[in-house]
Amino acid sequence: MPTLNLMVLVCLAYVALLFIVAFAADRLAATGRSTWLRSPLIYTLSLSIYCTAWTFYGAVGYAARSGLEYVTIYLGPTLVMVGWWWGLRKLVRVGRSQRVTSIADLISSRYGKSNLLAICVTVLAVVGITPYIALQLQSITLSFSIFFEEGTAGGYNDASVVFWVAAGLAVFAILFGTRNLDANERHHGVVTAIALEAVVKLIALLGVGIFVVWGLSGGVSETMARIDASPIGQWQMNGSRWATITFLAMAAFVCLPRMFQVMVVENDDERHLRTASWAFPTYLLLISLFVVPIAVVGLEVMPKGSNPDMFVLTVPLSQGQEALAMLSFLGGFSSATSMVIVAAMALSTMVSNHVVMPIWLSSQSDRASVSGDVRHVILLSRRVSIAAIMALGYFYFRLSGGGAALASIGLISFAGIAQILPALVGGLYWRGATRSGALAGLTVGFGLWLYTLLLPGLGGGLMPDWVLQDGPFGLSWLRPHALFGIEGLDPIVHSVVWSMSLNVAAFCAASLLSFPSPLERLQGAQFVNVFDHSSGPRGWTGSVAQSEDLMIMSQRILGAREAQELFQREAALQGGRGHLPEPTPLFLERLERELGGSVGAAAAHAMIGQIVGGSSVSVEDLLAVADESAQLMEYSGQLEVKSTELARTAKKLREANEKLTQISLQKDDFLSQISHELRTPMTSIRAFSEILRDTDELSMPEQNRYATIIHDEALRLTRLLNDLLDLSVMENGQVTLNMRDGSLSDVLDRAVSAVLAGAEGSLVVRRRRGSEEVQVRSDLDRLAQVFINLIANAQKYCDAPQPELTISVHDVGGQVVVDFIDNGSGVPEQAQSTVFEKFFRVNAEKAGGAGLGLAISREIMLRLGGDLIYQQGQSGGAFRVTLPLAGQEAAL
Ligand code: ADP
C-alpha cells in the first residue's frame, strides 16, 4: 500500500515533469523548431481538457447512480465536432482575424467592442467556473484521502493539501500562462503539458478498464453478462434529461472559457480542426469505453456505501494493484490540474483585460501612453488575477465544505456557461444581432440560472427553504423550481428550458427593437461574413514569394536603400544565403515595427496583413488607418493654407517694394525740382545783391530797380516755401480744419474780390447769383483759397483777347458743384491728367508760379470731402469743384 508521503512525492515528481515539458516546449517554440508542437495531434489532445476530474472520476459515479445518462456528457462534444465543425471553423477564423484573447473578448468585439458586455461575460464565467475549480480541488483531495484512509501515515489535513495544490497550480499557470502578452503567440508550454496530461489520463482509464474487464471479469463476454445483469444496463432513459444534458454539453464545449482558450486562442492552424473533428470524438469514445464496466464491477466488488465517484481508484487498490492505482491517481490528478490551469489562464485574461485594465487605465489617464509601463501592468494584473481566481476556488471549496456529488456542480456550471451561446451563435450568423440584444439575453439568462439553479443548488443557506417551497413573498408562481407553476420537471431541465428560452427571446426581441451603432454593424458584417474577408488559414507566416511583395512595399515606404539593408540584415540573421529573408513571424513583427515608425502602427499592420493575408484587416485597423490618413490630410491642408498665406505675403511685399521704389523716384524728382525752383530766385538775389555791394557808382534808379528785384525774388521764395509747407502739412494729414456753415456766394465774393482787387478789367467774371445761394459746411477759408487759386489761374493763363470767367453752381446728385470756365485755350489735352501734379506747368516761361497751386487746391478739396477735377470737352480752361452740402459731414 503506497503511503501518503509516497503519493505526495509521486505528485511532486509528476508536476516537476510537467514543468520540464512545458519549459522545453516553450524553448523549442522560441527557437522556431516547434513544428511538431503545432501538429493536429497536440491540438486534439489539448481539447481533452474538456474531460476534467468530473469526467475522470465522476463518469463512473454518474453511471453507477444514473445508468447510461453519463454518455450525454460525451455525446454533446461529439455532436459538435462531427456535426458542426464548419461552425467551429468559423469561430476559429473569427477569433484569429479579430485577434481575440477570450470568449468575453469575442462577444464584446462582435457587438461593437462593448466593454460592458465583456464584463457581463466575465462575471458570468467567474461565477460559473469558480465552483467548478473548487470541484477539481475537491477531487484531488478526495483521491489523496483514499490513500490516507487505507494507508498508515497520520496527520492528513484536507485543507492544507488543497492549499498547496492550489498554490502549485497557480504558480504553474503564472509561469507558463503569462510569459507573453501577444494573443497571436501561443502558449506552447502549457498546451504541450496539457497534451501530455491528456495521454496520461487516457492511459490510466484504459488501464483500469482493461484490468477490470480482463483481470476481474474474465473477458468481454463475461463483462457484458454482468452489465446485463446490473440495473445500469437496463437502458432506462429520461428523454428530457438526455436532451437537456446533451444540449448543455454541446453548449459548454463551445462556450467554456477554457475550451475557447485551447480551441480558438491557442489554435495554430484552422486545418487542425478537420483532424480534431474525428480524432477528438475517438478520444472521447476511448475514455468513456470502460466507464460502465468499471461501474458495474465496482458496485459488485466494493463494499456497500463506498463512494462510486472513486471506483476508478478504489477498485484497483482493493485488488492490490498498487501500481495501477497510482497510475489512476495520476490520471485523475492530470484531469484536475490541466482543467484548473487552463481555466485560470482563460479567466485571468478576461478579468485582467476587461475589469482590471479598464479600471487601471481610467485611473491613470494621463500616463497611459507609456507603453512599457502598461505592458508591465498587464502582466502583473494577469498574474494577480490567476492568483485571485485560484484563491476564489480554494475559498469556495473551504466554505462549501465539499461533499456534494461531483456531477451536480459540473452540470450547474455548464448551464451557466450555456447562457453565452445565443449571443455567440447569433453574433456569428445573424447580422441583425445587436449589443442591446446580447446584453438583454445574457442578463435574463444569467439571472434565471442564478435564481433557478445556482442558488438553490449550492446549498449553504444561500436560498432559504421557504423560498424553494412557497416562492418569494408567498408568490408560488415564482418558486425557483416551478416557475409560472410548471411543476414536476427535473430542476436542471426546468432551469435550462426557462433560462435558455427567455434568454433567446430577450436576445431576439432587444436586437430587433434596437439600432446597432456603425461599429456594431461593421463588426457584425466582419463576423458573419468572415470567410469573405479573410483569405486563408495562415497567420503571420508567408512564402518567399510574399517576401518580394513585402520588399516592394517596404521600399516604397522606407526608401530603397534602407529597405534593402533591412531585408539583407534579416536574411543574414536567419542564416539564409539570398537577400530575401523568410517571412517568419519574428521577421514580420520586426518589419511591422519598422514600417510602423513611418506610417503608423495601424497602417503597417493592415499593410502586412494584406500581403501576408493571414489575418483579415479588422475594422479597428481600418478605422485607425482612416484616422491616420485624416491626420495626414489635415496636416497637408494646413501646409496648403500656410503656403497660400506665404504667397499672399510675398505679393504684398513685392507691391510694397514697388511702391517704395516709386516713392523714392518721386522723391528724387521732387527734390531736383525744388532745388531748381529755389535756385532761380536765389541766383538773382545773390547776383543783384553782389552788384549792389561791389559797384560804387550805381545810379539811384538802378539801385532801386535792383533792390526791387531782390525784394520780389525774396517774396517769390517766401511764397514758394509757404506753398511747399502748406502742401506737406496737407499731405501728412496734419492740417486742422475749421468746419463751419456758410453761404457759398459769400465765399465766392471774397475770392473774386481778393483776386481782382486793383486789377479790375483784366478779367471779367460772370456769375449767376440765384444759384449761388447754397449753404455749405466746410472750412470756408480753405475753400476760398481754392477759389482764389482757380480765379487767379484764369487771370494768369486765359489767353483770350477779352478774358472772361464764368462761375456757375449746380446741385448734382446731392452735391454742390462749382464750375470755373474761362474763354481761353485751356489746358492741352495731353497735360490734363498731370495738371494737378506738383510743379507741373504747361509752359514754364509763361507761368507765374511754381506749379503748386492746383496740387494744393486738389489736396484741400479732398480733405474737405470734395474733389477738384479738370473738365474735358469745354472750349476754355474748365475746372470743377465738388463739395458736400451742409449737413453732409466731410469724411474726416
Ligand atoms: P501755379 O501755381 O504756378 O499757377 P498751378 O498749379 O496753379 O500753378 O497751374 C499749373 C499749370 O496749369 C499752369 O502752369 C498753367 O499752365 C495751367 N493752367 C492753370 N489754370 C489754367 C487756365 N485757367 N487756363 C490755362 N491753363 C491753366
Structural features, described:
The protein is mainly alpha-helical and 892 residues long. It folds into 4 domains: 41-149 and 157-361 and 375-402, Sodium/glucose cotransporter; 538-626, no CATH class; 653-731, Signal transduction histidine kinase, dimerisation/phosphotransfer (DHp) domain (Helix Hairpins, Orthogonal Bundle); 740-884, Histidine kinase-like ATPase, C-terminal domain (Heat Shock Protein 90). Helix 9 crosses helix 17 (322-363), helix 10 packs parallel to helix 14 (272-289) and helix 31 (700-731) packs parallel to helix 35 (853-863). It is rod-shaped and about 175 Å long. Residues 789, 793-794, 797-798, 822, 824, 826-827, 835, 840-843, 847, 849-854, 877 line the site of adenosine-5'-diphosphate.
